[in-house]
Amino acid sequence: MSPLPDPSFNHHHGGEAAIDLHSIRTFLRQWFRDPVKMASVTPSGRQLTRMMVAQLPADCSRVVELGAGTGVFTRALLDAGIAPSQLLVVEINPDLSDFLRDRFPRVPVACADARHLDTLAAERGLLADGKLDAVVSGLGMLSMSSELRCEILRAAFAALGDDGRFIQFTYGPFSPVRRREREALGLRMHRAGFAPRNLPPATVYVYQRSRSHEVASVRRPPRG
Ligand SMILES: C[S@@+](CC[C@H](N)C(=O)[O-])C[C@H]1O[C@@H](n2cnc3c(N)ncnc32)[C@H](O)[C@@H]1O
Questions:
Q1: Contact (CB, 8 A) for 151 and 124
Q2: How many CA atoms lie within 13 A of 128 on its CB side?
């Protein structure tokens, strides 16, 4: 991956410090409006952001980001070399979607529900030459119903390639995707790291198709 910074980043708001303040104010305003969906009072910090992006697979190119908020992960994905045309950001909040479009004019932003990510990625041409390499999720999964969580994961794994990764953080002590949900969806997981300096501290998990699931699909008997 070659670094491809988005040249638009600093233009509108006059430097890093101003951007951070602008982000924090925007985030906080949206949290007052809908604390459940926002799931956090402040954007993710640098330690957590670095840990999330470090979980991208080698030679990663096609990525969908869910629940981008004010775009801390978006910025880091671009800095890690993901081309804007190979990235799709899905953010349900209209004000935050406008904020993201203003900040990252070259990145497609869908103001939509993450549960439709497979359809959105296909519509935007992101699946034309292959499947996704990663889904990077900033969603507050703990505050969702099990049904919605599973719907989002089903859509993600419909769009992800065989070795594709679903990268998620949580403020809780356990995986936000419960064991029975993982089993029902045929997923394995690993705990990738803990970011104690984040506010609040957060743990990063990576979900992939389980090997037995892959074997089962490879060994499916021929028809007829
Ligand atoms: C915890 S914030 C994370 C923001 C950012 N990724 C970060 O780490 O600072 C969760 C974000 O997910 C968005 N969101 C919540 N439910 C969503 C859904 N079903 N589909 C898409 N975005 C959603 C919220 O609007 C919010 O911006």
A1: no
A2: 6
The atom number, within ligand 1, closest to the CA of 93 reads 25
Pocket test for ligand 1, best of 19, 23, 66, 72 (most atoms within 8 A of CB): 66
Ligand 1 pocket: which of 93, 144, 153, 198 to mutate (most atoms <8 Å of CB)?
93
Tokens 């957590």 — which residue?
Answer: 48
Residue 215 Cα to ligand 1 middle (Å): 34
* Atom 11 in ligand 1: residue holding the nearest Cα: 67
Domains and CATH numbers, the chain: 16-218 (3.40.50.150)
Q: State residue 110 phi and psi, 5-degree precision.
A: -100, 120
Cβ neighbours around 205 below 10 Å, total: 21
pLDDT for 135-181, tens place per residue? 999 999 999 999 999 999 999 999 999 999 999 999 999 999 999 99
Measured in Å, residue 90 CA sits from the centre of ligand 1 at 9
How far apart, in whole angstroms, are the C-alpha atoms of residue 194 and residue 89? 25
In the chain, the amino acid numbered 1 is: M
* pLDDT tens-digit series, residues 108-145: 999 999 999 999 999 999 999 999 999 999 999 999 99
The answer to whether 167 touches 137, Cβ cutoff 8 Å, is: yes
Question: Given a cut of 80, is residue 52 above it in pLDDT?
Answer: yes
